[in-house]
Amino acid sequence: MNSTIRLTTAQALVKFLSCQYIEEDGGAAPLFAGVFAIFGHGNVAALGEALYTEKHHLPTYRAHNEQGMAHAAIAFAKANNRRRIMACTTSIGPGSTNMVTAAALAHVNRLPLLLLPGDQFANRKPDPVLQQVENFQNPMTAATDCFIPVSRYFDRISRPEQLIHSLPVAIETLLDPINCGPVTLALPQDVQAEAFDYPAYLFEKRIHRIRRQGPDEQELADALELILAARKPLIIAGGGVHHSGACQQLADFAVAHRIPVAETQAGKGALPWQHACAVGGIGVTGTAAANQLAAEADLIIAVGSRLQDFTTQSRTAFAGKPLLQINVAPFDALKHRAKALVGDAALLLKLLHDALPCWKSEENWLKQAQQLNQQWQQFYDVVTANPGDNALPSDAQVLGAVKRQSEKTDVVVCAAGGLPGELHKLWRAEGPGTYHVEYGFSCMGYEIAGALGVKIASPAREVFVVVGDGSYLMMNSELATSVMLGRKIIVVLLDNSGYGCINRLQKGTGNAAFNNLLQDCEGQAPAIDFAGHARALGAFSESVANISELEQAIGRARAASKSYLIEIKTDPQISTDNGSWWDVAIPQVSDQSRVRQALTDYQQQQQNQPY
Q: What is the rounded CA–CA span in Å between residue 181 and residue 422?
């Protein structure tokens, strides 16, 4: 007869998480690095007790915002290339629904996140309880149902013994290269406290490893045929290159076969910026070099990318060209009428390399790429240079200053607005792990919380956050968490007095400036002391007037003992142009002549789309 251990549902859950490990550098590391928790009446009594008991094996971190802590957990997983995970627990009601945005972010970016929201009573005795959402037609409906469309796996644990089935499925989902994403286990507060005799084997130490899927033989043969017929191929490196740990295989393949490599936002840093095959970002926010090469290439090889509209310039960048998609997920590999090669990026790049011992691209193709890239680097030097102490700097000039004061091991973190575009075009990533921009969901408010997650993952690195005033005002509370946990981050806050990126987009579509910059909004624009606010959250901070002062302040921030915010005012009108196009629908009827002209231009650009 199997031995059993009598535990509450919450105790069994926490004990199980504490027993999961992941292969790492020939050894094993805990799969779960900790649990972010904001306690309430839906989780404090039972799950709180269980976490307290296991706190030496599974640390619990107190956060200040539920969405923020989930963003930090996501960033931690991304910084670990999906090999280590964090969990997040909340009370019922608003505590749980605050994490739905983060779940969507993890879902879009294919990143593992374990969400443990509290839920209403399964027995319904005290219904309706505080913060319960009542559905008049279906009493089984709960606020946590919001997680269903943004979870890769969702289960409401209505009986203690259901954990025996659900927990292994949850782990498999979190670690599966194809189905990786958020897992939600909704925990009714009465069930959390109920006891059950669990089989002891559930709590045995288990060491997991990431599955590496090999190719279908016919797909591999078709891919080789495509490559052999090409003279001017271009590789697009996506986030899957990092997730697979395939950066070295990508470099080896590109060098051996003389293929230039462009990068998506998620793939940036796969090659160091000065690598002989690197041509920078691709697409709407890419470099002129990479986009020109995409236009001239006779084969596009996308590795680990879902090819979203910023990468493809809304299906105009390389429409009609042969496209080979190397991706572990068939869902992504089949996009854009691609020839699919399904499997692990590191494994497949090695197989392709070995199967092409003599083939190289046209000799002048890589030389052309290097010349175009050199022209872009000269352009970089111009647009990122110090404009002088009396000029209001652009985003690019601020990024130039941050880069000049950076070390090769530093990490830059960003998420939304105009800054990700400037970073993708201009940031000189030093290699894997140095560039962390969330642009799959482009979620304002991710920046500071994400930087905290990166710092937890890489405590020896200096982590820089570049964030606009709009995103900072949306979510800044985890700056206080970084101070509390002693996880120092450096925040460079660019204050352009509003949503500068969307203001530029608004005017670019023919519309008048309206409701984006504070000066164009209803009411009186507030004078916000961001440096003072950061000090109120416990961080060091200062405000600087120009690029020279910014560079000096970065030196002080690097030497500081805790999180540091530097505020600088920037010009909201300037962005770096690369001549690309992005499909943003224009009103087909308008009284404004500028909108009508924008519609005409828009319809002309649409002619370049395949349908």
A: 28
Residues 152, 272 within the same domain: no
The values of phi and psi at residue 114, to 5°, are -100, 115
Q: Within this chain, do residues 34 and 113 fall inside the same structural domain, yes or no?
A: yes
What's the pLDDT band for 603 if we cut at 50, 70, 90?
very high
| Close Cβ partners of 202 (under 8 Å, ≥ 6 residues apart) | 12, 16, 163, 164, 167
575 inside domain: no
Cα(314)–Cα(493) distance, integer angstroms: 31
Q: Could you tell me how many residues make up the chain?
A: 611
In this prediction, residue 319 carries a pLDDT of: 86
Contact 497, 570 (CB under 8 A): no
* Mean pLDDT computed over 50-77: 97
Give the pairing type, strands 278-281 and 299-303. Answer: unpaired
What sign does the CA torsion over 170, 171, 174, 176 have?
negative
Give exposure, 226-250, as e/b (b: 16+ Cβ within 10 Å).
bbeebebbbbbbbbbbbbbbbbebb
Last residue of a domain, one of 346, 375, 404: 375
pLDDT value at position 1? 59
Do 348 and 480 reside in the same domain of the chain? no
Asked whether residue 106 falls in the same domain as residue 248, the answer is no
Q: Is residue 2 pLDDT above 80, yes or no?
A: no
Q: Which residues are paired to 113 by β-bridges?
A: 182
pLDDT at 311 over 90: yes
Range of the domain at 229: 217-375
Is 107 in a helix, a strand, or coil?
helix
Sign of CA dihedral 266, 271, 272, 273: negative
347, 375, 403: which is the final residue of a domain?
375
- The pLDDT of 14-32, averaged and rounded, is 95
Does 26 have pLDDT greater than 90?
A: no
The residue written with tokens 């236009």 in the block is: 295
Q: Which two tokens stand for residue 397?
A: 């000039």
Count up the domains in the chain and report the number: 4
